[in-house]
Amino acid sequence: MKQGYTKILNNPLVSADVLQDNIAVAIARAIASANKRARELNIDVMESIISLTQHPHNNSWVWRVNYGAKDYIGRRGGDLIVEVNPKDFTILRVLWGQ
Fold first, then answer.
1. Residues with Cβ within 8 Å of residue 37, at least 6 apart in sequence
2. CB of 9 within 8 A of CB of 19?
3. pTM to 2 decimals?
């Protein structure tokens, strides 16, 4: 078992039923990968409205994680969009909103 998974298994905040749910784990891994890239690009993840969607990409799909400002009223553009490969959770593409 990988070292990171052992730490998760010992965490009371993550129950066994969550760890057995493949979609829940995949979403968590996609968000974690996207959050890492967002932080590298100086996005304050905790101060962002985050949404996750599945998006078509090359006859398949990707996880698309969008980071927007919480104070979005009167603002236009500036969102960060990170596309994550659902197979290995690598970053495929980073886009900035207009």
1. 82, 91, 94
2. yes
3. 0.79
